[in-house]
Amino acid sequence: MNDLTASYRWLDDDGAAFGAPGLEPRWTSSEKDAVSTAYAASSRVWFTVSHGTLNEIYYPTIDRPQTRDMELLFSDGETFVHEEKRSFEYDFHYIDAAAPAVRVVASDLDGRYTVTKEFICDPHHPVVLMNVKITGDEDVLSRLKCYALLAPHLNGGGAGNSARSIDVAGQRCLLAWKGETSLAFGADCGFVRSSCGYVGTSDGYQNLVQDMRMSWQFGQALDGNLALMGEIDISQNREFTVAISFGDGHHAAIAQMMQTLASPYELHQKRFVDQWQRVNPPIGLAAVSTDGGRLMRISQNVLLTHEDKTYSGAFIASASVPWGASKGDSDLGGYHLVWTRDMVQTASALLACGRTDTALRALVYLACTQKPDGSFAQNFWIDGTPYWTGIQLDEVAFPIILAWRLWKQDGLGSFDVFPFVERAAAFLVRYAPVTQQERWEEAAGYSPSTLAAVISGLICAADIARSRESVELANYLETYADWIESHLDEWTTTTEGVLHPDVKYHYMRIRPPAKGEPFHDDSLPPGMIRINNREPGERNVFEAREVIDGGFLELVRYGIRRADDPLIVDSLKVVDHCLKIETPFGDSWRRYNHDGYGQKKDGGPYDGSGQGRAWPILTGERGHYELCAGNDFSKYVKAIEQFSSVGGMLPEQVWDYDDIPSRGMYRGRSAGSAQPLVWAHAEYLKLLRSAADGRVFDRIQAVEDRYAVVKEKRSFTNHIEIFEPGRPIRSLYSGHTLRIVDREHFRVVYTYDNWATTLSLESRSVGYSGSFVDIPTGAGQVGKITFTLAWPVEGQQDRWLGRNIDVSIDPVPASTKV
Questions:
Q1: Can you give the residue ranges of the Glucodextranase N-terminal domain (predicted)?
Q2: Residue 543 known to be catalytic
């Protein structure tokens, strides 16, 4: 690493380990019981706990896991070897209700000895601490040996790690590295012995299982998948503290570990808890919970712990790798990435908890991450580097909605959101109504949930624009939203439903793009969608009318449709018929029928195919709907609370079939995907706030006032049909206006009478949203509009479209006349 390396006192012991490079790396269980970090921004380290043991540690940012796991092993040297996560029963506790400081009390299955562990971070350095107390039968303890076993996965992977034993200030410890990142592993009492080995061949676990004692003491293992082991002398140290420290280089990691261990554990613990006690929980929400506010406090802390400390305002989706025990280094991202959708849900929930400053940090971060065209990557590392690159229109709309909420709460401070909002709205009008991917990130087309976000985002953007006296832009955005809303039921429903015997007219999950529309899939017959992640041999192409999800409830959530709208009510009947799951803890719903993203039918891990399971998020969404409808919603609050783990973590999915104990699958409990899912905690907090207010917190007043009224009482009438070169239309009703839109300035040359009369109009600019031309038609007029387009090119002749386009003018059907 540098010249200091040669001056370290390396401990060669038995020399280099054998068996390089070790087994193929794997991550660990995604079912976390806790995610924690110090509240102070100076401590840039996060840890997770699962099955009573330490799991992934993240450093120096929350999207970079550096370890797989660390646990204690015990042996009497002759008759047994105990591994914590297999040989112990444990109880999980938080040391203080206000702080994510964890205490695990575990006993061997025969009850001969008890191990009490506490996990915290140094409040000021990137060091994770585990304090250990061992009590029990003295006859057993006098023979007991204790070993700390750590699997480094530095810089996000198990391959290519290196480690050596080292003496630091007279204490034996271990040092691992990969690239510029170093990890120091030691104890306040020092290790008696240490060893570096390759996983599956020469690691300490293999040694103990074979010999029941530590007979290997390898001084180094280079460039492989490693496990490091240190022995603690518990005959002299029934209480000790283990430290795992990180740094950009050996010296940083070593020095910070030794600095931390130089202070008593109790002092670190007090500082850790004191810092978190400064976080004011939203006490008023406890009254509408059914658990006294326990999950409410945990959920707020879960949201806060998932914010980065270098890139302030960046929130990841989950500090976990779904089905991690079956995933290797190739799964670089897991869920420790930023999804704009999830992040806005987090920021909105923190706003619901009264944390306006935190929500503003999130908005400012998103503004800094926005692409020049106004969009966002599908998901990205916290430094803004894209990971997946799909276009999801709701992920562009949600930041606009967050900006509007902060503006309405006078929470923007000195931050000018208008340029950010204007660019995002421009992207929406260039692409909507067809999205490349809906909120489940799989299908293109007309999605009720996506369009709910798009309509709401455009109305919020118009409201902000009007406040800046950009009246023409505001009118333009409102008209675009009105046009989408006027076609919403046409684009996203079926009148020939086959999923419920009594309901033919209902919302669908998505309508695929038609030929000639953006993102059309030529490989599929018209009206068909392909469902990802289906098991080999299973049908994966369905008619759109054969697939439903509950995304249309977003139309009620934001105020586009009323809860008692007959189409909403009937669509819910289909959802409950196809997707509702009853568990011992309450009702939940699957995302959509035929979903393949979830645990396999035999309980095995998802491996690219499986069976979609029930999502607690959707229990929250249903609770919000029932509140809107004036029905009892408390059972949904209770269900979410009961879906949480022993540490209060909410899973992405719960197992929704008969128990399979051999697989660890129990109905209503975590089904192996991400836990915690931050979005689920955000949904729960917003449901509590909605319950406390008696009104859905996410409801947008400007949207509700515009759309959630009977049509006769609306303040506007939409008589605009929008033509885009990338999404042409073929007809409009007489008396309506044909609006032609494009990104660039253009001229339209048109005729109503087959060129007997030629007319021309120059487009009007609305800034980043592009340009438009309106061609009116008269009441009772029939025939067609024929037009072509020309774009000016500086210093050259105009660039012409090169063809004529016909749009028929049809009489207004009697049923639609007003």
A1: 17-278
A2: no
Q: What are phi and psi of 385, to 5 degrees?
A: -70, 125
Tell me the domains of the chain and their CATH numbers. Answer: 12-277 (2.70.98.10), 286-577+677-686 (1.50.10.10), 719-810 (2.60.40.10)
CA distance linking residue 176 with residue 162, whole number of Å = 5
Cβ 687 vs Cβ 640: under 8 Å: yes
Would residue 626 show up in a list of annotated catalytic residues for this protein?
no
Element (H, E) at 115: strand 113-121
Catalytic residue among 31, 56, 395, 438: 438
Cα-based distances in Å from 717 to 481, 508, 652, 712, 816:
12, 26, 41, 10, 12
E strand spans, 318-428:
379-380, 386-388
- Residue range 587-634, pLDDT digits in tens: 999 999 999 999 999 999 999 999 999 999 999 999 999 999 999 999
Report the C-alpha gap between 792 and 798 in whole angstroms.
Answer: 5
- Which tokens sit at 587? 């009702």
Max CA-CA distance within the chain? 108
Helix (H) or strand (E) holding 230: strand 226-232
* pTM of the predicted protein model: 0.96
Contact (CB, 8 A) for 775 and 787:
yes
The rounded distance, in Å, linking the Cα atoms of 197 and 151 is: 10
Is omega for the bond preceding 566 within 30 degrees of 0, making it cis?
Answer: no
Q: How far is CA 96 from the centre of its chain?
A: 27
Residues 6+ apart with CB under 8 A from 173: 165, 166, 167, 184, 185, 186, 187, 190, 191, 194, 230, 254, 257
Over residues 760-773, the mean pLDDT reads 96
The size of the chain, in residues, is: 818
| Alpha carbons 385 and 366: distance in angstroms, whole number | 13
d(CA 225, CA 212): 23
Strands 783-791 and 764-765: unpaired
What is the per-residue pLDDT across 37-95, written as a single tens digit (0 to 9) for each?
Answer: 999 999 999 999 999 999 999 999 999 999 999 999 999 999 999 999 889 999 999 99
For the stretch 610-626, what's the b/e string if a residue is b when 16 or more beta carbons lie within 10 angstroms of its beta carbon?
A: bbbbbbbbbbbbbbbbb
> Hey, how many other C-beta atoms are within 10 angstroms of the C-beta on 498?
12
How many whole angstroms separate alpha carbon 268 and alpha carbon 277? 14
Closest CA to 334 of 765, 576, 26, 15: 26
SS3 assignment, position 79: coil
Among 83, 239, 441, 517, the one annotated catalytic? 441
Token pair of 158, please?
């198990």
Least confident of 43-47, 467-471, 710-714: 710-714
pLDDT tens per residue across span 259-292: 999 999 999 999 999 999 999 888 899 999 999 9
pLDDT per residue over 146-202, tens digit each?
A: 999 999 999 999 999 999 999 999 999 999 999 999 999 999 999 999 999 999 999
Measured distance CA(281)–CA(27) in Å, rounded: 33
Residue 557's Cβ-side half-sphere holds a number of Cα atoms within 13 Å equal to 26
Dist. CA 533–CA 609, nearest whole Å: 4
Backbone angles phi, psi at 90, to 5 degrees: -135, 155
Instruction: Take residue 449 and report the two structure tokens written for it.
Output: 């949930």
Q: Angle 353-358-359 (CA atoms, 0-180°, nearest 5)?
A: 80
**Summary count for the chain: helices (H), strands (E):** 18, 37
- Residues near 704 by beta carbon (within 8 Å), at least 6 away in sequence: 558, 559
Rounded to whole angstroms, the Cα distance separating 783 from 788 reads 17
Instruction: Return the exposure string of 717-738: e unless at least 16 CB atoms fall within 10 Å of the residue's CB, then b.
Output: ebbbbbbbeebeeeebbebbeb
The 3-state secondary structure of 519-549 reads: CCCCCCCCCEEECCCCCCCCCCEEEHHHCCE
CA distance 160 to 222: 8
